[in-house]
Design a protein that fits this description.
Blueprint lengths: L10 E2 L6 E6 L5 E5 L5 E4 L8 E4 L3 E3 L21 E3 L13
Antiparallel strand pairs: 1-2, 2-3, 4-5, 6-7
Length: about 100
């Protein structure tokens, strides 16, 4: 299981029961984040034809993206940004390949 920030309180989601924790957005709002979701980053590999992946530390998936009951909690009915990061590294804006 991925580690959460030291001051994070892990709780079950009131909608689906998945383990989550909350973090403040840059606008000071709480965002639920999945505890166990991994975020991958494409890294350059030895072989230029095949990129390699690595797990991105201090990055979590917004629980609004994975919760089956997210619409119950979203005021606008839309989803939040997909990834939240801790520290100076901004979230990746690239879309994962299908």
């Amino acid at each position: 299981m991925k580690r959460t920030p030291p001051n994070a309180k892990v709780v079950p989601c009131k909608g689906c029961g998945q383990l989550i924790f909350f973090a403040l957005t840059p606008l000071g709002k709480l965002m639920p984040l999945d505890v166990s979701s991994l975020v991958y980053e494409v890294a350059s590999g030895e072989n230029d034809r095949v990129p390699t992946l690595r797990i991105r530390d201090n990055a979590w998936i917004s629980h609004y993206r994975t919760c089956t009951k997210a619409s119950q909690f979203s005021r606008s009915g839309s989803s939040s940004p997909a990834v939240a990061t801790e520290g100076p590294c901004p979230p990746s804006t690239s879309t994962p390949a299908s």
